[in-house]
Design a protein that fits this description.
CATH architecture of the largest domain: Alpha-Beta Barrel
CATH class of the largest domain: Alpha Beta
Strand content: 15-25%
Number of helices: 12
Strand order of the largest sheet: 1-2-3-4-5-6-7-8-9
Number of domains: 2
Number of strands: 12
Largest sheet: 9 strands, mixed
């Protein structure tokens, strides 16, 4: 039996912490149903059995209204609208399965891979693009599958960056993460590690000294925080961010453009400025993926571009993320920011300023 196998077997029972609220199916838990109903949510058993529900006590404290008027409640409280499935919606909207050479690894782009360690999160977002897979099954990548996944990364020298995702990797124990980090750190061609997580926002108490000590000893580590509204940023969240920064982590953020949550320029302006003041660079704002039962959250691309256009003149470039679309089926992410330049027949350009005024930029042939 290998040392790696012995270690993982020994700590398998400590891989993650499951919140008490999710110890049984949501449809069987009367406490959960009572809480959901109190916020105007749907307690239909079909819905609660189909899509996992989980929320932390800290997130509950940030909810100031109900599912009809509160930007945090809308992200976590089940709604009957989720049972409306449109023909264009897909179980695997971004085509992960197409680019999965081994279980747990998504190799869509040449120089980087996703390593999906778990399908469990600290909280479950009602718009999640992996909602058909999250919160189901065994929860954590098996010992065998993790070994195969690390071997795949080791045997592909073009892989420069490994992105730990899932599920949320930070629900796993520090011992488990340390073993994964040690193995990745031994692979010379892997130069950068990245973690996508909701934990510092939804369960900041899990950002412990032990975890930060682990982060401080490894390769350059970028942590991308998932946050959609400034109401989610509490003093506890700020303290978690400070701990990660003290450990040398480089912090970015990603958000999802959601109808009724943050689909207004002044809401995003407040969020992005708050993040930058905290030392977190807004990285991506995602156009909502075509996951089943999420149409009530969807903003049109045209409206999304209009929001980004309004932000251009209102906030510093430090505060502005890329507006991104994941092409359905697996072709990858592309920026869909509004365009401000148009080429004319004489090879000159019309350029539009942030306030809508238009100007002519000369052709390069006139300068040669």
């Amino acid at each position: 039996m290998s040392t790696q196998y012995k270690f993982l077997k020994q700590c398998s029972s400590q891989q993650m912490e499951i919140l008490p609220e999710t110890a049984m199916p949501s449809s069987d838990n009367q406490y959960i149903k009572q809480y959901i109903k109190s916020l105007g949510g749907c307690i239909d058993n079909i819905l609660l059995d189909k899509y996992s529900y989980k929320i932390t006590d800290l997130v509950k404290k940030t909810i100031l209204g109900n599912v009809f008027n509160d930007p945090v409640a809308k992200q976590y409280i089940p709604q009957i609208k989720e049972l409306k499935i449109l023909p264009e919606e897909r179980i695997d909207p971004i085509g992960d399965d197409t680019y999965m050479p081994v279980n747990g690894v998504v190799h869509r782009y040449p120089d980087r891979v996703l390593l999906k360690l778990s399908n469990i999160c600290a909280v479950y977002c009602r718009y999640c693009f992996r909602r058909e897979m999250i919160g189901t099954g065994s929860g954590v990548l098996s010992v065998k599958d993790l070994t195969v996944a690390i071997d795949y990364i080791r045997n592909h020298p073009e892989i420069w960056e490994v992105i730990l995702s899932g599920g949320d990797p930070l629900i796993l124990s520090v011992r488990y993460l340390e073993d994964v980090f040690d193995q990745l750190s031994d692979i010379r061609h892997v130069q950068v590690l990245r973690i996508h997580t909701r934990v510092p926002i939804a369960a900041p108490e899990k950002i412990t000294k032990e975890l930060c000590d682990l982060f401080a000893q490894k390769k350059p580590l970028y942590i991308v925080l998932h946050v959609n509204h400034s109401q989610e940023i509490t003093p506890d969240v700020e303290a978690a961010i400070e701990k990660l920064q003290a450990a040398g982590c480089i912090l970015l953020s990603q958000s999802v453009l959601l109808k009724g949550v943050n689909d207004a320029s002044h809401v995003l302006e407040t969020l992005f400025r708050r993040l930058v003041v905290l030392g977190v660079k807004p990285y991506y704002i995602h156009h909502l993926d075509l996951a089943p039962g999420t149409s009530h959250f969807r903003v049109s691309i045209k409206d999304g571009q209009a929001i980004m256009r309004r932000l251009l003149g209102r906030i510093s470039g430090l505060c502005q993320p890329q507006y991104m679309l994941d092409i359905p089926g697996g072709a990858g992410k592309v920026p869909i920011n509004p365009y401000y330049i148009e080429e004319l027949e004489d090879e000159s350009f019309v350029v539009e300023s942030y306030n809508g005024d238009k100007y002519t930029y000369p052709s390069m042939k006139d300068m040669l």
